[in-house]
């Protein structure tokens, strides 16, 4: 592509046609799912009837966000090799989920990760703290997704920001309100197939001039931008910063509420493990493809053309689609990006509704005594509230640079949810006070340190310096949360919780067969 000639920002009939096909198909799925969603279990966990392969696709669909697709391709296009740190950081979190989290989560919980933490601890304080931690992560993630959705759709389809938010919020509300987890799962499966297929086709088209050889593409990039494009150190130059970012991305994956919730949709622990295996394969393949997309964009489109359209490089994949496949292919990839946003927002909203309805209303306010009809009603009210909050946050942060909020969501998840989840299933002496203290320490320290970081003080507030040199606080906040949880537990022992650990171990490894989880109280 020469210069910056692009049809991005103009109304595209092709993009709208693909978009309408996707919306029609997924709303038809929602109508089918609505007829099958009669109970709370079906609303929050698809009745536990999702297979390992289906959940693997849905996990990949839930996880591969627009930030992954557009953001990483843009980072690689503008920074070269260093963009890979995000791919690797996000990907290596999945073995942690496979070996430490998936099986205990499926065997001990019901709808949320708070079920697992509260299994042998005092349920009320733990559920309140876990809900605060989970909702904090969801809110930051939702802001990033909704603001990103408004800006992307405005650029891709030529729609107004507010119109784009209204469309995303309304369609997402229809998915979750009527189809619950069944509809959300199938929307994520459809989205994962479209995204994997579209990204693969885009990568293949970008390799055609190079004889389908990625090494020839990388060599061309090195010839154009210098050999340093294939070396690390441009995007993240400090080893301490690299480790801190890696910790947040890796352990944050294992603490995201909408990802953890997916393990309750499968029938048993074996299916939970197999679903992570499939998801890791799909996500790993996708990140390798985005690497080719990034270099493909830098060669076929050019860095100056990419940054002239969007300073952050987020339009690199779309510009590449237009360069190698013309406007029809750009329309298809734009519709895929829109589907990506919808699926992730639906997953976030459903997990937020579970925290509000299951953890706070049923677990705290009603002390586990709400009947099925009341639980389902509260779940749907919570879904409407969260959809309105998501649209409100999108409007509130219009025009703001909210890219840091994805990092903030991962930092809070890694610093609060992951430590308490891991300690509750692996350490006999972990107590209620330890769990609550660890969550509070993780959330507060992550928020404070990110406020003090260059991300806020220099990049957002335009101050000359920041109080903290680290952009990502994970190297401080993750260990801090573990230390606080351990020290408080040792200072204030809880013999009842320690006595129940043997039951946790048995159930964690053997499952509960047909028994109702105790955490449902």
From TrEMBL:
Q: Protease: is it a keyword of this entry?
A: no
Tell me where it mainly resides.
Answer: membrane
- Protein name (Swiss-Prot/TrEMBL): Sodium/solute symporter
Annotated TM spans: 15-34, 55-77, 83-105, 126-144, 164-186, 193-212, 242-264, 276-297, 329-357, 378-397, 403-423, 435-454, 474-492
| UniProt xrefs under Pfam families | SSF
InterPro entries from the UniProt entry: Na/Glc_symporter_sf (IPR038377), Na/solute_symporter (IPR001734), Na/solute_symporter_CS (IPR018212), Sodium:Solute_Symporter (IPR050277)
The beginning of the lineage is:
Bacteria, Pseudomonadati, Myxococcota, Polyangia, Polyangiales
UniProtKB keywords: Cell membrane, Ion transport, Membrane, Sodium, Symport, Transmembrane, Transmembrane helix, Transport
Subcellular localization, as worded in the UniProt entry: Cell membrane
Question: What is the recorded membrane topology of this protein?
Answer: Multi-pass membrane protein
Give the record's family classification: Belongs to the sodium:solute symporter (SSF) (TC 2.A.21) family.
